[in-house]
Amino acid sequence: MEFVLTLIASEKPLTTAHLAGVTRFLDSQGLPLSHDPRWLRPHKAADLYVPFRPNAQQIRAIRDALSTDRIDVLINRTRGRKKRLLLADMDATIIDGETLDELADFIGRKAETAAITEKTMRGELDFTASLHERVALLKGLPESVLQDTMDKMTLMRGAETLVGGMREKGATCVLVSGGFTFFTSAVAKRVGFHHHHGNVLDIQDGKLSGKVNGPVLDRGAKLAFLEFYMKDLDLQPEDIMAIGDGSNDLLMLQAAGLGIGFQPKPLLIESLDNLILYGDLTAALYAQGLAPN
């Protein structure tokens, strides 16, 4: 089965010299190109087609060679390259920041909460226990801070283009977050997701109680949502793209045919072949052979 390596520039132009260097490396590894490279957008993104999938070490070597010029490398099957389902994390993926950390800013404990969040996303702390610990700090905050926090949040660069581009090709887009439904509903509506899922903050008498209602949406739940939509839409794993940044996204990303770590934490860097380290979310469109408008 043929595969395609997509090189995507973020700052400096992508050049024919870059393509030639990767081609020489692939030749040395017994992976000659199936045919000539194809530009998706001149000096921005190009495809290199190979008859077999390079292994993790080979992909890492290519990525390392291109790191100085901040060029991302993504690999995908040529057959079924355009995905029919997108599952995306929200915090630090679709939006720029962590909503829970911003809520903690209202009680002057953002730095403390952010440190816990960072350790959790790195896989050093249990997600469910960490979530309960951080939410407990918010007890007594007025419900109005949720909207105040939402008003401060900004979208990650390329978020609307990514979702819009996939919708244009007929894909179903689902936001699945360990954050909270107050935010996932607003972000899904703004960006264009068809569905959204998140945790539910308990609110009593107009104030946060410091608790979460119902089971926590953790890494297992994200995988379960992937499996649910795959069955509901009669898809196979190769029809699915998933994207996220933290340890609680890993199972979902590994189960998807195209699982991408976006500005990923170390655990994802160690575990995945597909990483967006330098560019914005539109890189995930280029990986599907789509050139964003």
Protein described:
With 293 residues, the protein is an alpha/beta fold. It has a domain at 1-79: Alpha-Beta Plaits (2-Layer Sandwich), CATH 3.30.70.260. The chain is built from twelve helices and eleven strands. It has helices spanning 16-28, 56-66, 99-104, 110-121, 127-136, 144-152, 159-168, 181-191, 219-232, 250-255, 266-271, 283-286; strands spanning 3-9, 38-41, 45-50, 71-77, 85-88, 172-180, 195-204, 207-213, 240-244, 258-262, 275-276. The strands form two sheets. A seven-stranded mixed β-sheet has the order 8-7-6-5-9-10-11. α4 runs antiparallel to α5. The chain is elongated, with a radius of gyration of 20 Å. The model has no long low-confidence stretch (mean pLDDT 96).
Write the layout of secondary structure elements.
Elements: E1 3-9, H1 16-28, E2 38-41, E3 45-50, H2 56-66, E4 71-77, E5 85-88, H3 99-104, H4 110-121, H5 127-136, H6 144-152, H7 159-168, E6 172-180, H8 181-191, E7 195-204, E8 207-213, H9 219-232, E9 240-244, H10 250-255, E10 258-262, H11 266-271, E11 275-276, H12 283-286
Parallel strand pairs: 5-6, 5-9, 6-7, 9-10, 10-11
Antiparallel strand pairs: 1-3, 1-4, 2-3, 7-8
Helix pairs in contact: 4-5
Alpha-beta content class: alpha/beta
Query: What sequence of helices (H) and strands (E) makes up the elements?
Result: EHEEHEEHHHHHEHEEHEHEHEH
Briefly, what CATH class of the domain at 1-79? Alpha Beta
% residues in beta strands = 15-25%
User: Quick one: how many beta strands?
Assistant: 11
Which segments are poorly predicted (pLDDT under 50) over 5 or more consecutive residues? none
For the biggest sheet, the summary is: 7 strands, mixed
Q: What CATH architecture of the domain at 1-79 do you see?
A: 2-Layer Sandwich
